[in-house]
Structures are given as structure tokens and as C-alpha cells.
Amino acid sequence: KHQVFKVVVDYVKSLKEMIKAGEYDWINNDIASDHFLIQGEGRKEVEIILFHFNRVISSDNAIVEMAKAGYRPALVEELLTLGAAYKELQKKFPIVALGSVWQNPHGGREVPCLGWGGVGRSLDLDWFEFGWVDWRFAAVRNAS
Fold first, then answer.
1. Is the distance from CB of 71 to CB of 49 less than 8 angstroms?
2. Among 27, 111, 124, 129, which residue's Cβ finds the most Cβ atoms within 10 Å?
3. Would you say the pTM of this structure is higher than 0.85?
């Protein structure tokens, strides 16, 4: 049902190195190590799937739906690894990782996402409170 994307997350890399590996045309400067912490050790194979709900959905409801299927939202390091390994994927549809949330100085919650548009391949932030329409939600199977 869902296409599986196998990636190897390299926790030895810094956030900046993970971003560089993706060769993005545009990067939001707030995707920085003081806003998003990488937690993990060594290298780990991860299977990422992309949920698409075919309707407007809130972040909270998307997380609930993923959990019902046995998945959790991807973290920024998993999204960055996906973006680096499958560079053409974000040209098909925007992809968001709801597992890593940064609260900006104004109190808004923002999540990392991969997009495609006038600036080329982008690594950006979007509002957690967004109503998502044609987005894909990167997810990882819950550890059993």
C-alpha cells in the first residue's frame, strides 16, 4: 500500500552535514542545530513511508492516524536523510516531518519540510497548526 524508502541515518553527522548532503537549492536558516537536536548514535537503517490522507488534515489528526497504523512521525534527521537519498521525491509532492517541532520566538510551532517550487528544491519550515492538503507525511514504524 505504502511505498517504503530505506535510508541509513548517520547520527555521526551534524545537522549541518545532513542538510549539506541534501544539496538543497534553498534552506530556511531556522533549521539549525540550536533549534533541532539530533539524537542517536552510529548509523541506523530506517524504513520511511509517506502517508497521504487525500483530505485537509491537521497535524494532530495526522499523528493520530499514523499512530493507528503503527507509525510515528519522522524526525528531522530522518527527513534530511530521505531528502538526500531520494532527491527527486520532493519534486512530486511536499513532504513534512511532524516529529521535530521548533517553537519560534513568537510562540508558533514550526516543522521541517521538503518542497519544490520557484526556488528549486527547498528545505523549509511550515506551521504545525497548518491545515495540510496535498502533503505527504514522512513516518517511521513504531519500535515494537
1. yes
2. 111
3. yes
